[in-house]
Write a structure and sequence with these properties.
By secondary structure, the chain is of the alpha/beta class. The strands form 7 sheets. The protein has a 6-stranded mixed sheet with strand order 5-4-17-16-15-6, with helices on one face. The chain is globular. The structure holds ligand MGD (2 copies), iron/sulfur cluster (SF4) and molybdenum atom. The site of iron/sulfur cluster (SF4) has 12 residues, from loops.
Length: about 675
């Protein structure tokens, strides 16, 4: 038995260092690395079972060619040689007919590191095809909101949270999506720190909080402005910090805050005026208040303003200067890595793009030229994209040649003409940098790829070779590519020696000292000229959503979605034990809402609106507030009677970063007719 140190590549802020126990070619156990300060010796409930995923009966072991109708999921095994020949022949014919824009490369994080995900993007960049504007389903709006306030720079080191005396998990279910910060939070609490959770629902973290404050979905900017109002009014603002390190607070104070008195904010947010004043005083008097911002609140039409306004709050009290204080959304920009040599080896700087969250529209309506080929890697848009029924209609087009590279026969893969078996991160070499921690680490190949699975890197290189692309990256080893990734680092990672990181294990490269701001003024920007130039509000603000309110008259419930505890979107759907623990795909309604509709716990219900109808099992619990239908997790259609929750969500954009607006969905719930 060997123990091999590697790193978890799932799309997760923690980026745990892992120890894999291997017998022969088989991984028998995965555990958290006890020597890694943030991982602290434990993996999450999902990755504890990763060894089962490697040998999941649902894994695809050979390339497949479709034999049934699109979506039906009938395939026959073929060889890699046959699969690659067919792909290259079809793509070359499209390129000859109307140029490379007829092909769309739709590759995302893939639960992989920088090389495996980057090189796939590099392939389509070099090809000059239509490209993916990636991340809009996830963090592009949150990032744009943060950047407006702070600039493109990471936030506080999560490990400093143990020095804080007031921790606010603001729209962040730490127990589910950031569990390794929890021991640090608990250490701070053992020294007297208070944990406040600001959430629309009673999340697992809210259950463990000192104070569980419920806010209405989509109203966080108003809540943050209400706190600023009280801080300024009651002499709790740090005027010295505001004068030295921020820009435009005077304008906010004059033009915005008068509209956000505690009473006005209570009417908008559902947080009482008394609670608001109490929280403002707690925040204003804390020595080093720390805010962990989650992305969930960014996925609605004013999501960018929400994140931006909360990110401005520490500036009002000077918390960004205090060890243990400040805010954290993400860490990634601070490393300063330059992925462009891998992601953009050659090819046109500009080409046509498709927004990640509008795949359905692109497949159904794009012209001059229409999309004739689609390549998907590490993405399951038939489940995870907004308006996923439109995605499925697009994928069902007979004249669309679709290739999917995935370890599982995902819902998206079921529509493919060719499915290619993907290796897991445990079966491939890579380099990773955190987005919720400040560590850099190499991933070892812990076991050989199962069956005929290939890592993304190998596939990108083989396709590039056959397509005649000559860029050096398409013939480099993983280590050579990693060196390229490190070469131009301009932030905290500059000067890191990749060979040493590979040899010695995880390295922490956190910023030190007060929070830096990378805005045009170099200060925390309450007033943003950059936003004004984009036609967006220069000051933080909140306004009612006329579109949402008009829908509310017909569909009185608001959808709230959040990650599943035992699933990471759909990537662990190959582990039966985790599917079982997560339970049947469900909708949670407050007892009042269930009673109004004559619905009972355990019944199958239909969630419906103008976009679609979805069937789920009803759970009745005050975990969901009145007025909300809470749906945990993204689940494959087969687990939920043929439908998935995003069939209800429109592809409307958020205010910043053209992000998805899942949480803006209005709907109603009714008893499902007897099985059809
Ligand atoms: N177990 C598990 N872990 C995961 C994932 C998973 O699917 N499962 N997904 C991974 C990925 S890809 C990502 S991007 C991260 C995301 O992790 P986070 O950045 O933490 O974001 P979310 O978990 O999407 O949303 C956090 C919380 O926001 C709340 N929320 C929604 N709308 C609002 C609102 O208007 N106001 C407030 N205050 N709160 C709101 C939700 O109830 C949810 O609990 O997690 C990663 N980790
Ligand atoms: N309603 C609602 N919808 C959401 C969200 C929400 O909060 N609410 N969250 C959004 C967010 S934050 C995100 S990031 C997206 C996630 O959306 P996706 O990235 O589409 O979802 P995943 O299920 O994480 O993973 C996609 C696929 O990658 C495959 N995969 C895993 N490892 C590898 C690999 O090494 N190589 C390859 N080629 N494939 C691999 C998995 O089997 C899976 O089929 O969903 C978004 N959708
Ligand atoms: S918590 Fe996140 S990084 Fe850690 S093992 Fe689980 S999925 Fe991986
Ligand atoms: Mo995400």
């Amino acid at each position: 038995m060997k123990t091999i140190r590697t790193v978890c590549a799932h799309d997760c802020p923690d980026q745990c260092s892992l120890l894999a126990q291997v017998e022969g070619d088989r991984v028998v156990k995965i555990q958290g690395d006890p020597e890694h300060p943030f991982t602290a010796g434990f993996a999450c409930a999902k990755v504890n079972r990763e060894h089962e995923m490697l040998v999941s009966p649902d894994r695809i072991l050979t390339p497949l060619r479709r034999t049934g109708a699109k979506g039906e999921g009938r395939f026959a095994p073929i060889t890699w040689e046959q699969a690659l020949d067919e792909i290259v022949t079809r793509w070359q014919a499209i390129i000859e007919d109307e140029g490379p824009l007829g092909i769309l490369g739709y590759c995302y994080s893939a639960h992989q590191g920088q090389i495996n995900r980057g090189l796939m993007l590099g392939l389509f960049h070099a090809l000059g095809s239509t490209r993916l504007l990636a991340g809009t389903v996830c963090d592009s709006c949150a990032e744009a909101g943060w950047d407006a306030a702070c600039g493109s720079v990471g936030g506080a080191d999560p490990e400093t949270v143990e020095q804080s005396d007031l921790i606010i998990a603001w729209g962040a279910d730490l127990m589910t999506t950031n569990v390794h910060i929890w021991p640090f939070v608990e250490r701070a609490r053992s020294r007297g720190a208070t944990l406040v959770v600001i959430e629309p629902r009673r999340s697992a973290t809210a259950e463990r909080a000192d104070w569980d404050l419920r806010v209405k979905v989509g109203t966080d900017a108003a809540l943050a402005l209400g706190l600023m109002h009280v801080l300024a009014r009651d002499g709790l603002a740090n005027r010295d910090y505001l004068a030295r390190k921020t820009l435009g607070f005077d304008k906010v104070e004059r033009e915005v805050l008068p509209r956000f008195s505690p009473e006005q904010v209570a009417a908008i947010t559902g947080v009482s005026a008394t609670d608001l004043v109490r929280l403002a005083h707690l925040y204003g008097k804390a020595r080093a208040p720390f805010i962990r911002l989650g992305e969930g609140m960014s996925r609605s039409h004013q999501g960018g303003q929400a994140i931006r306004t909360v990110a401005l709050l520490p500036g009002v009290v000077g918390a960004y200067d205090k060890p243990g204080g400040g805010a954290l959304l993400m860490t990634a920009p601070t490393f300063g890595f330059d992925a462009s040599p891998i992601r953009k080896p050659s090819g046109p700087a500009q080409t046509r793009t498709v927004n990640h969250s509008r795949l359905g529209e692109a497949l159904l309506t794009m012209k001059d030229p229409p999309l004739r080929a689609l390549f998907v890697a590490g993405n399951n848009p038939a489940v995870t994209c907004p308006d996923s029924a439109a995605v499925r209609r697009g994928l069902a087009r007979e004249d669309l040649f679709t290739v999917v590279h995935d370890p599982l026969l995902s819902d998206t893969a079921r529509y493919a003409d060719i499915v290619l078996p993907a290796a897991s991160y445990l079966e491939s070499e890579d380099v990773l940098r955190g987005y919720g921690t400040y560590y850099v680490q190499f991933a070892q190949e812990v076991a050989p790829p199962r069956g005929e699975a290939w890592p993304n890197r190998r596939l990108a290189q083989e396709l590039a070779r056959r397509l005649g692309l000559k860029d050096a990256v398409f013939s480099m080893s993983a280590l050579a590519l990693a060196k390229l990734f490190f070469a131009n680092a301009a932030g905290t990672a500059s000067g890191l020696d990749p060979e040493a990181v590979r040899r010695n294990g995880p390295v922490k490269v956190a910023p030190s000292g007060p929070q830096r701001f990378a805005t045009p003024s170099g200060k925390l920007e309450f007033y943003s000229e950059t936003l004004a130039a984009q036609g967006l509000p220069a000051l933080p603000d909140w306004a009612p959503d006329a579109h949402g309110e008009s829908l509310e008259r017909r569909f009185p419930l608001r959808l709230l979605t959040a990650p599943g505890y035992f699933q990471s979107h759909t990537a662990f759907s190959g582990i039966a034990a985790l599917r079982k623990k997560q339970g049947a795909p469900a909708c949670v309604l407050h007892p009042e809402e269930a009673k109004k509709r004559g619905l009972e716990d355990g019944q199958t219900v239909e969630l419906h609106n103008d976009v679609g109808v979805v069937r789920l099992v009803l759970r009745v619990s005050d975990e969901a507030p009145p007025g909300v239908a809470f749906v945990p997790g993204q689940r494959p259609a087969a687990e939920g009677g043929g439908t998935t929750v995003n069939m209800l969500c429109s592809d409307r954009y958020s205010d910043m970063g053209d992000g998805a607006t899942y949480q803006d969905t209005r709907l109603d719930v009714r008893r499902a007719p007897a099985a059809r």
